[in-house]
Amino acid sequence: MDTSFLSATILLILITDPLGNIPLFISALKQVKPERRRRVVFRECFIAFSVLLTFMFFGKGFLEVMHLTDESLRVAGGVILFLIALKMIFPGEGGHGGNQLSGEPFIVPIAVPLIAGPSAMATVLLMSTREPERILEWVGALTLTMLVTLLVFLFSGRLQKLLGEQAITALERLMGLVLTAISIEMLLGGVAAYIKKLA
């Protein structure tokens, strides 16, 4: 699957799913004073960006140490994305609102795993190892994704009031549908590459 800068950005936005995460994000910030919320949003987005950037730059070395192939990572990435997509389309009971926090959230659950979850880590790892010569494009796509996430979280209260719970749920399921197709494409690409390698 050829990945352009635009498709990489869209893929990362779909995986981080800022719109779908609005209810959990608002719930996580309930105990935070209104005047501190903006600072918390900036801090958590920066931490998530740093985590994903680390995976992007040191992913190849990690794969070599663990003796993992590109094909296995593509298949694993496809499976993870498929499971994430299924949860987006068929959310379980209490999926978003289950975590009630006391005090100010730090790293968990907003930065990790809400933004920089396993699927996002696997995706940036896959992007950087498949085409390391395009690393600046992938950094740009990740930066743009973080800016979108930052803006959505900064205006999460207004967006929730403007769109309503039903519209946000519908958007999340639509994103899940697109992500399902992407995950299947990634999975098939990994299997095809492995079969070609054996032949």
Detail the topology: elements first, then pairings:
Blueprint: H1 5-16, H2 22-28, H3 34-66, H4 70-89, H5 110-115, H6 118-130, H7 135-154, H8 156-198
Short recap of the structure:
With 199 residues, the chain is an all-alpha fold.
Distance, first to last CA: 20 Å
Helical segment tally? Answer: 8
Counting copies of identical and different chains, the oligomeric state is: single chain
Q: How many domains?
A: 1
Overview of the structural elements:
The protein is built from 8 helices and no strands. The chain is mostly helical and 199 residues long. It has one domain. α3 runs antiparallel to α7 (135-154). The longest helix has 43 residues, at 156-198.
Considering the chains and any ligands shown, give keywords for the structure.
199 residues, single chain, mainly alpha, 8 helices
